[in-house]
Amino acid sequence: MKKNKINLSLFVILVFLLFVFLLSFIKNPDKKTKNEKVKTALVSGNITDEIRNFEIKRGDEILEFKCDFFNGSSEPLWFCGYYTETGNFFLPAKQDKIRSFLFELSRPRNLERIILNKNRADSFGLGDDYAFIFHFISGKGSNEIRFGDSNFSETGRYLKGGSDSSVYLTDKSFDRFLYTGLNQWCDPYLISRNLGTEYKASDFMNLRNPDLIELRHGGISFYKPEENEVPSKILNLEMGDTSNFKISCYKIPSENNYHVNVVYKNPLKSKSKDFEYSVKISEWTYSKL
User: Which has the closest alpha carbon to 111: 51, 34, 44?
Assistant: First the structure.
């Protein structure tokens, strides 16, 4: 009798283990939902075509982008910089990089849904203090995308959209745009090469120093010359199509740097507006002007 009870117990245990084993082969619908893979664009192409302003924010750092139409061109020219209490300070951006950025937004990519719980987003580096937050404004409204931590194997990066509580994992092809620094986005040349063409020394009629077009600036200048302040140096560079650059230099008090205001004009284009920006250069660069 005792032996039969032992055999019965062993049989029950065996049946239970067999049941657990069979369950491991049954797909869990909840698990499938969390690991769902989709292929989609981060922002649809018809929206990226209408984006005219966006910003990149990480913590307290914010880099602003805006575009304008210049020289009657149908293609917008992009600027990057800052809105401050004392004014708006923008430099020409790297146009090729902006185009690549917008292409990556609209390119279909593989996304793997990781989690549906909105409260867990911070654990993927997607909180306000750490994530790279892209905020876009177009004629069809606004949109937001957040990029957080890399995954453990460093092969992908977590992201989420503004209206979607889900967290996704994608490849790292977007990493080259995860910067709030001006130097990563702005055109580095004193004479901008992003006016719709890349200028060469031969384009200028009165260029005494061909190295001038190779000189680089040190970023935005926030210095504002006094109303009657006389420039320490003025250069007028003319081109064969009558367009011209006017470069005015001012010594920045208590610094070994110069404030340089650059204005480009094209009088033959009736709808053309002046293209203007201000940068900072070192004494060494100033000596090369």
Answer: 34
